[in-house]
Amino acid sequence: DAYLGCARLGIFYDSRSDYKNSITAFNKSCNAGDPEACYMMGRTYAKQGQFKKAHKMHVYNCNKKGAKKSCLSAGKALLKEKNPDQKAVKYFFKKACEAGLEEACSRLSKL
After folding, report:
1. pLDDT in the model for residue 5
2. What pTM did the predictor assign?
């Protein structure tokens, strides 16, 4: 479908470090309901050093779309803070773990 094409276009732009067009393409696909595109948009924000935008996208994608990779990314981002909210970190890792992401289960067991 057209939105899958947008996600592919986003990957193409991202691979060429054209982040502006990458974000635009991922956003169209994300808004159409593609959680992988939302995840990729969060990753692209992070590549640009826009960590707050990246975290916001991963939290949204985790909570609204149940995207396990975004849940993991949200938890990992929180751990990088000076005084991380352990309850929130556990929440995101638990959601990712319950969705079958082994890395999240491993990280959760170490908290």
Report:
1. 83
2. 0.90
